[in-house]
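Lab notes, practical 5.
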Amino acid sequence: MNTNTTAPQWSLLLTYVSLAIVICVIVLGSWTRLADAGLGCPDWPGCYGSLVVPQTSLEISAAEALYPDAPVEVGKGWLEMIHRYFATALGFVILVLAVASWSQRKRLFYPFVLTQYLLAMVILQGTFGAWTVTWKLWPQVVTSHLLGGFITASLLTVLLIKLRRMGQKVKPLSLTNISHSRLRIWAIMAAVLIIIQVFLGGWMSSNYAALACSDLPNCNGSWWPEMDFSQGFNLTQSIGPNYLGGLMNSEARQAIHVLHRYGALILGVFLLVMSYRLIAQKDSRLRQFGVGFLILFTVQFCLGVANIYYFLPLPVAVAHNFGGACLFALTLSLIYVVFSKRGRLNEF
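Output from the prediction step:
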C-alpha cells in the first residue's frame, strides 16, 4: 500500500472544477425548470434532432415538421441545451476523475470508493435528464433529478474535504456540554428534515404549486385552507401526459405548498437550536458549521418569503433553489465530519 497520504494535485483540481460546474448545472437546471423550458427541446440528447437549437427559418420549419406538436421556441431551446452542455461537461470531468482514481486506489486514505459513487451518480443523473424530457416532465422524475443534483453537489463537497484532509494530523472534535453520540443524532436529524424539505420543495416546483398560496403568513386567507392531500401527494401519476404547467387542482397544490411552509418552520426551529449549540462549542470547525447553518437558513427563509410576496421572480426562485443545495451539502458535510475518525477541517 502506498503510504504517501498527500492528495495528488490533479484530484484536487478536478474536484474544484467539478464543483464549479455542478453549481452552474444546479443554477441552470432550476432556471430551465422555472422558465418553463424543460421541454424547450422535445428530444434528447439533441434538440430537434441536432446538437444545437434550430435558428434559421429553414431549420425551424424542418424541426417543426419533425416534431409537429412541439413548436420551436429558440430562447427556451437554448436554455435547455446550455444546461445539457454543462451537465455533459460535469459528467466528463467526473469520469476522468473516477478513471484516474484507479491508480490511487491503494493510496492510504484516498477516497477511491467515493469517486466511483460520484460516477454512478452522474450516470443516474444523465438517465433522469433523459427521462425528464421523454416522459414529459413527469413530477416523480423531475423531483428525483433535483434531489440527484443536490446529492451530486454534496458528494463532491465531501470529496473535497476528504482530499484536503489527506496527510493532515488527526485532531478529534472538542465538545462542550454535549456527547459525541448526541451530536451525531443532531446531524442525522438535520439531514432527515432537510431531505424532507428538499423533496417538498422539488415536488412543489414540479407540480407548479409555488404560487398556490398567494399571501403571507397564511394561505389564501386561511391557516389551514381546503387541501387535497391524496391528489397532492399521489406518487402513482401515469407516465405520458405532458406535465408542463401541472395537472393538479388548486386544493392539491395548496396541500403541497402548505406542507412545504410548515416544514420550513419545523426545520428552521431545529436548525436555530442546533446552530446555537454548535456555535457554543470550543471546536472552531463546529462553530463554523453553526454559523453556516444560521446564515444559510436565514437567507433561505427570506428568499422563500420573497418568492411569495413578489410572485416568484425568476432570480429569487433560482437563488432559493441554490440555497437548498447549499444547505443539503453543508448537512452532508457535517455528517461526514462528526462520523469521521480522522482529519481536520479548520483550514477548509
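Observations recorded by the TA: The radius of gyration is 22 Å. The mean pLDDT is 93.
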